[in-house]
Fold this protein.
Amino acid sequence: AQKITQTQPGMFVQEKEAVTLDCTYDTSDPSYGLFWYKQPSSGEMIFLIYQGSYDQQNATEGRYSLNFQKARKSANLVISASQLGDSAMYFCAISTMNTGFQKLVFGTGTRLLVSP
Amino acid sequence: DAGVIQSPRHEVTEMGQEVTLRCKPISGHNSLFWYRQTMMRGLELLIYFNNNVPIDDSGMPEDRFSAKMPNASFSTLKIQPSEPRDSAVYFCASPTDLTSGSSYNEQFFGPGTRLTVL
């Protein structure tokens, strides 16, 4: 079975600084996808970024980038130039080929607080 | 596109009552997922459907929970009888495309239903 571990319950960062949110995963499947979602205090789940296990380059989406280290089974989210609006819960998730990529398994999340 | 629509947004009920949560997936998406989010257990997959057929209901906590998808544009999650420990936020999500075999499976979430069982 696949598993996501997010070891940081909370992170603090000052506005305009970069922050890294950790995510490690466990799967025996060679083919998988990794996702990050943001959940602001309003409660909705917002998709941020995706990384496929065979992708050669780290994914980037605007201020978000994914530091994918396959050998270490880590998929850390890097937010550059933090903004106050980045304060939210962040969830890492995985889907694997053995489930037909049909199920997302989520981590427990990291709460990010951006201060002025 | 209006995105995934859920109703009601908030539900407060008393223990023992029946609760029905509703979801309308994104038009053209053939799959639908129901999740439950609590502080203690995080985000849990309850059940998902492909082409209106339940594929995996192993996350449904017990027989008090049932879900249906009578057509491609509507699904319900029913709890009968409800208990205080069912209090949670229930999300419905529809993914991009589960039939392509691609690992890219972005799930579009609805706004959630916050359920409180007194």
Notes: The interface with chain B takes residues 31-33, 35, 37, 43-47, 50, 52-53, 91, 95-97, 100-109 of chain A (CB under 8 Å).
